[in-house]
Amino acid sequence: MSPRRTRRILLAVTSTQSLRLLAGFPEYLARSGWDVHVVCSNPPSDQIIAGCTVHEVHMRREPSPMIDLVSFVRWVWLLSRLRPDLVVAGTPKAGLLGMVAAALLRVPLRVYMLRGLRLSTETGRRRQILALIERLTVWASTHVQAVSFSLRDEFVAAGLAPANKVIVVGHGSSNGVTVPREAHEETAKEARQRLGLPPARTVGFVGRMHPDKGITTLLEALHFSSDSPRWQALLIGPEDQPGFLDQQLSALPPSVRKRVVYIGEIPDPSTHYGAMDLLALPTLREGFPNVVLEAAVHGTPTVASDVTGCRDAVVDGVTGLLVRPSDPRALADAIERVLSNPSLRDRLGLRARERVSHHFRREDVWQLTADLYSSLHTNCRSGA
């Protein structure tokens, strides 16, 4: 009798940038005995994931029928060669192409990793097209793994999947965060001095400079805020469209504009969370915002929009505050409430760190996810 083949899993995301969503997890699966293959567009030539094999399948994020057809053919060719036991594909384009190709080749387990819902902020024909893509992806999958309970609820309520097909692992989160055993002792003031930032109280924003992320709401909140307590906005992240942020800033009075510090995209934003008195996330849609967990590691609480995903990451009044989306005055009021009350800020930050330590340690999220995949694989082999 020939020896049983090692369990083979294929993990896919659309872009190289999205590989950070998997950081450390492919290696963890490889150490756990899986034969791990990773797929994305244009991986760097020096991209090495220990114990794993990286494959390139060019995919374009936006709809492009001819390019998508070529990508689909490449997907089919790759899967026919690898014959994985399990395909896990997340981000919309990789999810669609990966799930449909895997279904065509009868891969026994096909998990659509639902990290967010782009159609939440769309209307009209574009929303209809995105909904159709989601339904097709779900149809081709055997399971849907949502990164948060509120995302699962929105997805099911929109009629995109039956409730019994959507799974949430643990308390949610796509990949957890690294939590040092010891809390950071450096104060926000000391961190700002170390980084050479202006000394004012600081409200941070980490993410893409894009309307969906609420950057306009934050800048308007800065305008609406009173002089006491006076605060500055520290913006970290790339611009989706060059010149977008300059356009937003030009609409502000000079006295407000000079209270904005934009440092762009940096390799490791965790070096700056300690310099923030507060994280602001006035986003319009999320799956599960990892930046909230990253800030919590440093004892930094968050004021966020009361929207899908944020409701899972922030416990209102316990680890941070939730406010109405697209309401700069409500955001300004919440920010000033926290900054003007140091004991409240410290209490929220302490509870945030305790929660992330208990429920979102990266190794724990990896273990729960690996257990899910092993269980699905065992049940599939046994015919359960």
In short:
42% of the residues lie in helices and 16% in strands. With 384 residues, it is α/β, with parallel strands linked by helices. The chain has 2 domains: 8-176 and 362-382, 3-Layer(aba) Sandwich (Rossmann fold); 188-359, 3-Layer(aba) Sandwich (Rossmann fold), CATH 3.40.50.
How would you describe what is shown here?
Strands 3-2-1-4-5-6-7 form a 7-stranded parallel β-sheet, with helices on both faces. A 6-stranded parallel β-sheet has the order 10-9-8-11-12-13, sandwiched between helices. The model has no long low-confidence stretch (mean pLDDT 92). The protein is built from 15 helices and 13 strands. It has 2 domains: 8-176 and 362-382, Rossmann fold (3-Layer(aba) Sandwich), CATH 3.40.50; 188-359, Rossmann fold, CATH 3.40.50.2000. Strand 5, helix 4 (124-140) and strand 6 form a beta-alpha-beta unit. 44% of the residues are buried. The protein is globular and about 65 Å long. By secondary structure, it is an alpha/beta fold. Keywords: Glycosyltransferase, Transferase. It comes from Nostocoides veronense. It holds the Pfam family Glyco_trans_1_4.
State the name of the first-level CATH class of the largest domain: Alpha Beta
Task: Classify the secondary structure makeup into a structural class.
Answer: alpha/beta
Uncertain residue ranges: none
Number of domains: 2
Q: Percent helix among the residues? A: 40-55%
CATH superfamily of the largest domain: Glycogen Phosphorylase B
Q: Tally the helices: what do you get?
A: 15
How do the SSEs run, as a string of H and E? EHEEHEHEHEHEHEHEHHEHEHEHEHHH
Protein name: D-inositol 3-phosphate glycosyltransferase
Pfam families: Glyco_trans_1_4 (PF13692), Glyco_trans_4_4 (PF13579)
Organism: Nostocoides veronense
Keywords: Glycosyltransferase, Transferase
